[in-house]
């Protein structure tokens, strides 16, 4: 009967020592890693929270990256639209200077050449690409919206669809522009054809033709400034969206940290308690063995 009791006490002592040793080792690992959880089984509920919040952080980071990408792309678009407006303004100014009967043929040719130069600048601008994407080709943005054969510029080659990029779960931003609506809109001919006609009118001194060209330029100016206003509105909204995403990320990371991590002070305190528990278990095992031996000798 004594041997059974002694063996039971011994096994219980070993179990206590092993349990406290594992707790002490786990506490040491927490101190060195700063992590509350070393494996999911340490706290399944906390591990589930950690997994959920990590997934949320990854999703938020994707939106933040998209926000940054949209911001960069639209800043390029905004700059190009400014260039287009500048070219239109140049053509308007030169057309006005050519609307007079006192110019010599040489002077008219010089004015017409400047209008031709504005057309070339427009062609270059509207074919701007950013990271392989043509900004003014609509959704068909892997090919240039306008091409040319010699001095002849093609009709619009893109489409009227606009690419939208999600910058949050509830918001998206247009990152391309329909170049056809920009260069032509509802007019009977696009801006390139209008500039060709305007340059020809200046060369020939055709005042009615110059007036028609100026009207076309005014309509184009309004279309482009309207497009730039839309781009500007989107750019203005992005910082607030980015701030909301940053706040969501901080909140999610805080919840993840609370579930997975442990402060150094708390970890050291836990390690100290685990060490004391281990020492108590070892001491208790020694005491029980001595008591059992004395009982046997009696």
From TrEMBL:
Flagellin C-terminal domain location: 215-297
Entry keyword Cytoplasm: no
Main subcellular location: other
Top-level division of the source organism's lineage: Bacteria
Cross-referenced Gene3D superfamilies: f41 fragment of flagellin, N-terminal domain
Single GO molecular function: structural molecule activity
Span of domain Flagellin N-terminal: 6-139
Subcellular location: Bacterial flagellum
InterPro entries: Flagell_FlgL, Flagellin, Flagellin_C, Flagellin_N
Record-annotated membrane-spanning stretches: none
Keywords: Bacterial flagellum
Any Gene Ontology CC annotation: bacterial-type flagellum hook
Gene Ontology terms: biological process: bacterial-type flagellum-dependent cell motility
Assigned protein family: Belongs to the bacterial flagellin family.
Protein name: Hook-filament junction protein
Species of origin: Luteitalea pratensis
Taxonomic lineage: Bacteria, Pseudomonadati, Acidobacteriota, Vicinamibacteria, Vicinamibacterales
